[in-house]
Amino acid sequence: MIVQSKIWCITLCILCVFTYGNAHPDVNSFKNLTLPQLDSMMHEQDLSKIEDQKQTLELYKSALIQKHSDSIAIFKEIALLNANLNNSHDAYIYAQKYIDNTLDYSIINDGAFQKVDSSLEIKQLKARYQPHIDWLDIFYFGIALIGFFLAIILNFTKQSDRIANALISSFIFIHSIFILEFALYATNLQLLVPNTYFMAGSTALLYGPLLYLYFKRVTEGYSLKPIDLINFLPNLLLIVFLIPIYTASTDDKIRMLLGLELPFKMFGRVVFVLKILSLSAYGFLIGRLHFKKTIDEIKSGQNNVGYWKRNIYFIHSAYILSYVIYGLTISGIFGHGSEIIYNMQVVAMSFMVLYVAFMAYVQPGVFSNKISSDSIRQNLFMPKYQNSGLTDTLSEELKDNLVRLFTEDKIYKDSTLNLESLSEKLNTTRHNASQVINEHFGVNFFELINKFRINEVISIFNEDVHGNLHIIDVAYEVGYNNKVTFNKAFKKETSLTPSQFIELNRKQNPVNLG
Predict the structure, then answer these.
(1) Alpha carbon distances (Å) from 267 to 27, 231, 262, 264
(2) Based on the domain organization, do 311 and 456 belong to the same domain?
(3) Exposure string (b/e) for 253-268, b if CB count within 10 Å is 16 or more?
(4) Domain tally for the chain?
(5) Do residues 344 and 452 both lie within one domain?
(6) Is there a single domain that holds both residue 158 and residue 107?
(7) Residue 442 and residue 504 in contact, taking contact as beta carbons nearer than 8 Å
(8) DSSP assignment, residue 206?
(9) What is the pLDDT of residues 403-413, one digit of tens each?
(10) Counting Cβ atoms within 10 Å, is residue 141 exposed (0-12), middle (13-18) or buried (19+)?
């Protein structure tokens, strides 16, 4: 009886081992199975049950540990199972591994990921790969289109300086390329058109040369020579340097976009350094050219001529500064940057495009080299007085009287002068006085007062060759009540502070003490 009991126990143990072996196959056998066979075996489980899903997940992980030949595809299965089980972290990890190896983003559109949509990691995953467009992206796309359109029509402007227009239109064109690529990258649309990767890099060293030659053209009437092509040589060499990127396969470009091709990050750093050097060098040359010409224009009484160039230069300077901050931020020197820092450079470029577009619409004479800020203002003021009862004859008479009051009587030196008292001196209404100033001088009352006062100050400074006068005394003499208002008005008219003007004036006209 005892022997019979032992036989039954041994038989039962053998059956248990056999049964367990069939239910849980040896993980070492996974290496010899194809993925379809492995999937077939896994799908025999009832995956509607959480326990079976967990068991299947462990089986896939076991196959992964054994370095199954289809391990990349197993990443996808493990990611989906974890998503079904609300394991957002593991779903994120394995989905990322699958995408990194296959560049197949469709996995994140699977219904399983809807269960973990609220997870921060899954949101980041979708934000990294799924196309998305917000109002700022739409703005950038719109600016790029405006820039491309503007670059074309500027070259068809009649009676214009075609060389100057070709330079400024090319300058706007490369701005638009940069803005477009930034918008494509920010919206993940560049993953759908990876051949646009680094297209703005091919023009990275053209900003400075184009703007510098444009300034020389409109400031000095400079005629371009073959030797000037040397300004574009660095950009040509840069394109040669970037050939490995432009000839890379589509998949390689996607990996570059995603930061998976680490050796190619070197190209971005090189372009950044070279672009900073180019922008800084040409920015200095443009600034020297601009401010040297500004002082000459002021002395000749043409202090409104430089508004167009001044604004172009200042917007470009803002772009240089924002680009430096952006580059130092992404390199880690300034730490992690915010969205504001990443967008600053593009906003500056957008302002440039919009400003040129505005000038092309309001004052097309700018592109005929007939620069006049007064006429710009006049075009803006004209619609305001279309229904005015002021006749042309009376308008001319009032203008002549106003000029006499300002040039002979110098009433602008009266610190209490206002539009009401001026209209009384002209024996007309405030409305008529304002209209005459707007239409004939292209400015408002306060701008006209400041223009005459600042011109008077400049005359006084030019006569004070020994620098015996105090700036504040001169300000009081011409009608200003405080130094702050005077300094602000002076800089608006001349682009220089009073001290800067005096210093620059002395350098250009040194006093001979011998």
Answers:
(1) 45, 22, 10, 6
(2) no
(3) bbbbbeeebeebeebb
(4) 3
(5) no
(6) no
(7) no
(8) S
(9) 898 888 899 89
(10) middle
